Sequence to fold (627 residues):
Amino acid sequence: MDYNSKYNSSDSIKKKKAPEATYDMYQFITLDRDTTYIDTTQSIRKSYSHNYLRRDNFGLLAFPNDGQTYNTLQYGLNGFSPYPEFGFTAKQFNYMRAGDIKYANVATPVTELYFKTTIQQGQSADSYFAINTSPRLNFSIAFRALRSEGRYINQQARSGNFRFTTSYNTKDGRYIANLHYTSQRFENEENGGISNVSDFTSGDPAFDNRQRLGVYFEDATSELKGKRFFIDQTFRINPKKGANNLYVTEQFNYEKFGYGYTQGTIASSVGGTAVFRFGESFVASGIDDKTNYNKMYNKVGVVYENMTLGSFTFFADDLHTNYFYNNILYLDNDVTVGNLLSQRINTIGGQYNYRKDKWNGKVLYSKSLTDDNLFNLDASAVYDWNDENQLSFRYQSMNKLPNNNYNLFQSSYKDYNWSNTFVNEKINSISANADTKWVSLSMQLNSINDHLYFADITNASQRQDSMQIVAPKQYGKAINYASLKVSREFVVGKWALDNTLLFQKVDQSDAILNVPEFVTRNTLYYTNTLFNNKLFFQTGVEFNYFTSYYTNNYNPVIGEFFVQDRVKIGNSPLIDYFVNFKIQRTRIYFKAEHINSLFSKNDYFSDANNPYRDFLIRFGLVWNFFN
Fold:
């Protein structure tokens, strides 16, 4: 054999080097066409998002166990929508809505794995995989799961969020479609909180084992589940894109919800005395409340786009909802609680979008054709001064229809049955934001009329028997809310101090909208690299604090928070110590949570009957793969 043959020489046959994919080839696009990229860097902002919700939860106060609900410290955190919703909002903090889904546009297959230990037995995980069969057809599939036992009796949490997305566009960009399917389920054992709070606050070492603390329920559970099919598509009528373009758009959303509350034993034992926490019931045992809901939403629009003037959209939509129970209830005093709340809302509207140079603006107005008197005016503008500085403004005015569970609810508990006809809430909101290289400022001014809320209507004798009776109410007077949030990071060498401060003020005749006047998060940390810059790490202390205020309390029968004016929480710092690492595309997190609880008083609460979390060491990671 001739070993000097050209076929065996090292440079005779050269393979063409495959092109390397850059970061901007891995895009994630929202329903509003906002585009982000995969970011595998490590930062203090990333550590704030390493939690069950997978987002920065500043302004939210977690309950004792992962997978439970959150008390809201910052009003207006989730924005406003004029359309009526299912309700049971305390169960929906981790429910992914249509606007939360992101559609992949990736050059090569991408995988992201999230993991975090939970409280006692269990784990929290989120697995995401995206692939493209061609540059114009992308798929993604993801599943987020949690199981956490918790430290208290009857507190286990389980959840699952399945998502599947497809995005497609033709080669000439004439047709674009995004669709997704989700199936989500959240199950919680509900103990109703500590039945004798003084056992916790006393600091008695006998109760350091939280299983020894008495709770109201040892066999109650709640479950929220939902499924959704969604598609959003756009077709350009003119074959080639030019200075003037005409589009037809269509959006379809079918969604179904179910909420259930079960409780085997109705009577609770508090200090050796039988207590009926939610009052009398129609059944001697075995509460099994179920609420069902489905909606079908269609929206059709025509868009005229001019490259100089912007785009003009005219649309009409149709919303049909059914909120229902299995039976009609005939109560005493000739009171009837129906089993069906069916709504059909037709809306027309227009939207103007402008984007040129440093300006980006939008004005939307919609109004119902039906008798619901729904309308929504939403105007916003963004000015990108440069890469480091941005200003934005927004004004929103709406007539908001009540969520369904305000108007109709059925339960085996006698005091938890109602059929109402509330008027629309009137909300006016102004916000301004300045994101600069020096400081980030966010201001919000809200005026609310006919505010809907759940109230504590327990009378004196019922309260003496440890009962908790809740009902929907509407506040006929005006509520004015103002907030200012300031964020600034100071960096000196390898040390940094990251600060977020929130100031809030509510002007109202009665204590209906209750929030702490001051909330702060301050993180002092050190950053460095080791092993020839192969290991990046951060370590520091995170300090959270809010002033005392009349907290809203959680009620598992209705899956909502309600207003009360008897118990304040707050004025107790929450201190965490953390160490974060980054090795290649793997980010690793260690955190010792609430370390000051080891030596502080037991005065930390998430609501009046649920303590905040005790000291716990947690571990987690986020790992990205690119094929």
